[in-house]
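Blackboard transcription, Thursday session:
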Amino acid sequence: MKIRRSDRLVDMTYYLLNHPYTLISLTYFAKKYSSAKSSISEDLTIIRRAFEENGYGIVETLPGAAGGVKYVPFITDEEARLFATEICEKMDSNERVLPGGYVYLSDLLGNPQVLNQIGRIIASQYRGEKVTAVMTVATKGVPIAQAVASYLNVPFVIVRRDSKITEGSTVSINYVSGSSDRVEKMELSKRSLPSGSRVLIVDDFMKGGGTVSGMRSIIEEFDSEIVGVTVFAEAAYTSKETEDYASLIRVSEVNIRNRTMTVSLGSYFDI
Amino acid sequence: MKIRRSDRLVDMTYYLLNHPYTLISLTYFAKKYSSAKSSISEDLTIIRRAFEENGYGIVETLPGAAGGVKYVPFITDEEARLFATEICEKMDSNERVLPGGYVYLSDLLGNPQVLNQIGRIIASQYRGEKVTAVMTVATKGVPIAQAVASYLNVPFVIVRRDSKITEGSTVSINYVSGSSDRVEKMELSKRSLPSGSRVLIVDDFMKGGGTVSGMRSIIEEFDSEIVGVTVFAEAAYTSKETEDYASLIRVSEVNIRNRTMTVSLGSYFDI
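(Written on the board underneath:)
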């Protein structure tokens, strides 16, 4: 049965949103809706325009027999700034300052709407690169990795500080924790990352950068490459072992006694 | 500027998918598109029909001044079974059997597409209940909790076995781990769960059920209620401390020496 344009538009929008970075042939849609390819092309023109005008992402069309359509999620600089500014305002509370200069973030990083926007922003940043896996360290980085991986439509892998039987055999490395100056261990399940991967590192909060350095070493052990590093928040008051990273927000002037801090937009927005 | 119906349909579909369980007034859409409410109503009829026919969920319309439209994600029994059956096939590999009768799942639970479907299935199961938070235990349960929470549009909270300074003050309880018979500790950040919450417990793999019992105790400590328990996989070869739960898949006849096991549909599909 031929499906009406209006119904096709709704269904194609749903399908594209659920399959980012996937090349879908026009034949797939033409068969699904018993419609001519020319009609599908017109539908895609409408969807492309609506996505672009609303800043939802790019609907790429690749011509030819091996061609098709691909949805690349995206966020405008304006919307990203607005979101990050709202996060800064939400973080402006002295109840968030914890002993040791840490910051309470679990409410924000347990909110799916916040995580989706973080995922969209970071995925948008690397949309020109060929990322094949997202990496983070357990536990706090996991929701961010998942959100980013969902928009890039690639797997995410979790590096652990403690060995778990449920991972099978692992590769482990030692690293120096920037914040405690102690030598610590981190490990990754052997089969979780294929060699030759192109890895995007994400994390919730960067203090000394030791954890990120550790993940860099792990990626080398797996004969893989680092595409980039982006963290949700960075502490601007500690020296970093690593320089090449972006942050969405920056925490500075933490005063543990008065429980005050200053929160501003991170290096992601510096340009 | 008045927006065309075709563009409205694409944009409203995007908006609804990104705001599940949120009551959106028709006035919001009417203003956004400079269109009459009657046109918006007609758009929603089209979207409702397309969502229903494709098994994407229910688009509820609530009449009256305080009314509006609400998207409730849903999955048909057929699609859920198909997905779970595919997972069973993917799990049918002797390389997954680990010492102690554990099963390697990190590839599946690190795949955003798999996680989204798991989230959709579990959210669909509890769509009639009033869930205000999803709870899990670190680390493996986190991606499932996030996926479910995203479809239910509620926060998720992470119970930890190890104390972390970044959580602030915590409430901790002791529980008996079913698999090791040892007394262990788990804790939850005090401010992460408001009293009076209605909590859905999810986890990746249930063996003895000790972890779930522990989470039940934690929920009581927070003067909150349990709405239900659903795990991705359950081991059918161990006695359980808890009876009231659902599983998407069931692992049985694990032979550690031969590294074989049997995987079948879980109790979610029993009815």
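Lecturer's comment: The longest helix of chain A spans residues 37-54.
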